[in-house]
Amino acid sequence: MIIGLDVGGTHTDVVLLGPEGVLARTKEVTDQENLVDTVLRGVDGVLGDIDPGKVSRVVLSTTLTTNSVIRNTLTPVGMVVAAGPGMDPKLHTIGPSFHVVKGALDHRGAEIAALDKEAVKKAFALIREKGIRAVGLVTKFSVRNPSHEEAMEKAARGLFDSVFCGHRLSGVLNFPRRVASCWLNAGVHDAFSSFSQAVKEAFQARGIIAPVHILKADGGTFSLDAALECPGETVLSGPSASVMGAIPHAPSAKDVLVLDIGGTTTDMAVLIDKVPVLEPLGAEVGGVKTLFRALKSVSIGLGGDSVLHVAGKELHIGPDRKGPALCLGGPLPTPTDAMAVLGLFEGGDRAAALKGMEVLGRDLGMEAEAASCFVLKSLCEKIRDAAFAMVAGINGRPVYTLHEMLEGYVVKPEALLVMGGPAAVLAPGLGEVCGLESRAVPDWGVANAIGAALARTTCAVTVLADTQRGFVRAPEEAYSAEAPVAFNMADAIALAEKLVREKALRLGADAKGLEVEVLESQEFSMMRGYRRAGRNIRVRAQVKPGLIRNGGIA
Amino acid sequence: MMLKAKSKTGLVFFPAFDWAIDPSHPEREERLLYTQDQIFEEGLMDIEGIQEFKPDLVTDQDIQRVHFCVPDEPTVTTSSHYVSAGGAKTMARELMEGRIEKGFALVRPPGHHAMRVVHGGRGFCNINIEAIMVEYLRTHWGVKRIAIVDTDCHHGDGTQDIYWHDPDVLFISLHQDGRTLYPGSGFMEELGGPNAAGYTVNIPLPPHTSEEGYLYTVENAVLPILDDFKPDLIINSAGQDNHYTDPITNMNFTAQGYARLTELLNPHIAVLEGGYSIEAALPYVNAGIILAMAGLDYSHVLEPDYNPAVLKESKDTLQYIHKVCDRVMDQWNRRGPELSQKVFGKKEFHERSRSIMYDTDGIYEGQKEILRSCTDCAGSFRIESKSDRGWRIIGVHIPVNACPACKAQGEDWYEKASGADKAYLQDRSRDLYLKKS
Description:
The complex is a heterodimer. Chain A is α/β, with parallel strands linked by helices. Chain A contains 14 helices and 27 strands. In chain A, a hairpin with a 4-residue loop joins β13 and β14 (about 265-270). Helices cover about 35% and strands about 25% of the residues of chain B. An eight-stranded parallel beta sheet of chain B has the order 2-1-4-10-9-6-7-8, sandwiched between helices. In chain B, α4 crosses α5 and α7 (about 210-230) packs parallel to α11 (about 315-335). Chains A and B meet through α5, α11, β26 and β27 of A and β1, α1, α4 and α9 of B. Chain B: Pfam families: Hist_deacetyl (PF00850). Chain B: Belongs to the histone deacetylase family. Chain B: This is Acetoin utilization deacetylase AcuC-like enzyme. Chain B: InterPro entries: HDACs, His_deacetylse_dom, His_deacetylse_dom_sf, Ureohydrolase_dom_sf. Chain B: GO terms for molecular function: histone deacetylase activity.
């Protein structure tokens, strides 16, 4: 049996899954001040009298990291960075104690300027003087050569409670994001570590001995212990739970739009043959751009509680929410009132809704019913436009080879999967305005928790070989070796696959059925003069997001 | 800290990582690899106000506004050319639609050695990507006056050829003196055709020109000329081979110099041309240009071995550059009919013959051109071209703003064209391209 929990901002959804499907479910109010208690209430709620020893896996999403960023409650982090040629590194200042030291590497990882170890020591002293116990250490091009970060890490040992390096968190090039991601990792580490410890102890006390996993922004999971090494990856795990929850219902071999319509917002994502499309670089949370792998998701200010108003004969929906619908005692008409008028929403005060839609209808020159139909149709059209714009954005992503330019995959949505409160009401209308097959995800209220429960462990590794300089490296995995002149693409791919497999197992993946794939592979002959001086090989491999099984759900 | 570009800047980055002229050619897969590394590592595309766009592909019609491709467009190009020209076109469209204020097409292969008639590749170029963009801007957006400033180290002889007769498109080329470098042209005496005398401006700079001399030229020749011409748009053919580490040229320009040049020139659109110091120059030069276009601080963009004292020009070199600038300004101030009469004489029709070599593809072309002298428009012309590959063609060009007489003359030339394998009519006044065999 598996327990899946999606700890959301207001509610926490929990399911207990058996081989045949959902055995139990519950919805708890989230206590942001005591997430552990929320998790335990959820677990107790679904387990009831069931023997906790039968639970084989627990997966939870958490708002901890996202909220820490948004509420600015991260532990203070001292940052020490070295940059070299390019933008002024001070432009990337983050945190209360940011220090730039001399030292530079170039694009191939060659040292341009030695690291100023004295300056590093001084920076550490200044950080400690401020009472700061966490540091982030980042250099430009550290994913090509981690030696400067490693030297700083060595010097930081024993001086701080937590030390994070940029090269371990991603193999992707982007110095400002590496700085921000490292800061986030170090800043959330304390809170995450307490949370993780409390969850472990509480589960043990209840006799749950199963491994506990945390959901990440890319819709994959990793173990609680692995999460301590890179806690920033748990940002935005809530939205990814919903998308993963849609997967059991997505048709194979088709491009599917997932629309999660909430009260205030609609979150949109794309599945290609049951695999979610990812962001090219990483998650963005509270204005902080990171290198943490994330699902591509766009959120728009349209939902069941969006305020309706008419200005100059034109209907406006959202983006504000001013409370619940009229029919639920709110101040202003919303799409939910339109549904109530049409008998598509029960459990509210229809008379109040009708009154509001009559007033709105007058401004539009329509009867209340006609206005209600118009509102729902307009809502569907606006969601469609935003969804198609997102797809256009994905198809408009830059590519760097002729092959991709001429033969690259083009996303063409063939079906809609609708989740959220108004899913059943809006799914047919959305299908109609999009001209696509459309269905509401059955039992959408727990789909997110199911998504968390069934998500597989994911990870990625980047391998870089430079046979002229004679090395092959995967700094994320602290891997570095000499590359013989004959080192080639097949060797690089084999290495990347091996490293990504080992990483997945370390993060908590099940060896059975573990599939790795090569995301990118590029090889360049480095010509100097008229002879080949070496090969420059870049390979990125991953375990892609998906479910460990579909069983019993769809 | 939120970084924000002062000017909304668009970027098309198309390094064509799977295309080369041949494996060891300077124009090979690896060329923009380290540039990609640098601009990705800098996180330039994350800066608010800098946006990356996927390039469009140009169509054959886009190419036909500029070239007579012999025998046709697909034969003398590869798909990479359609993308690199497309990247320039994308920047033009985004600019005109108001989504960006500046655009940089960081694309390959380059185009500025491609002339109006194309039998094959010359100077690594097959089709002229700036000219294709300029003609798109004129046709689709009605832009009237355009200045192209070519800062590649090699003379932009292709662009010069295409706008030779057109006084509405000012062409300025700064380059290493043609006596010391391919293509061996770009002397001050090359000043435009009889209908556009003075509107081609060549500024040959001596070898070893560095920051001071180059920027002196920009401030004392290029900018005053642009002030006089008052173009609606400024295009920069942004070759990067004036760099002190470039393997096939002899100049001493720098990343700081390129960034300052971009700031001074303030082009609406820059298009990458040459530049073959792929590790020591391009990563830094491109980062500097992008930051300068976006109006951001570039003072930390320095090559690892940057040493301005070593690179500085000698006094003699600087004095020589000052003299060149004086002569350029003197000639510019005499532009127009009087200069034309002095250089070309007063005739109803002007004829010229010349031979053109295609170093990249090893082709030799002979051309005879006849131009109708005109003060009302850029003038129609007829080119007879034969190549040592055996092609004989006739190409007739009618300009965008053609007067009735030139239109009639062009149509008559095309109608009467005979004795060639193919004849083409490039009627820019009607945006029409006809061919007959």
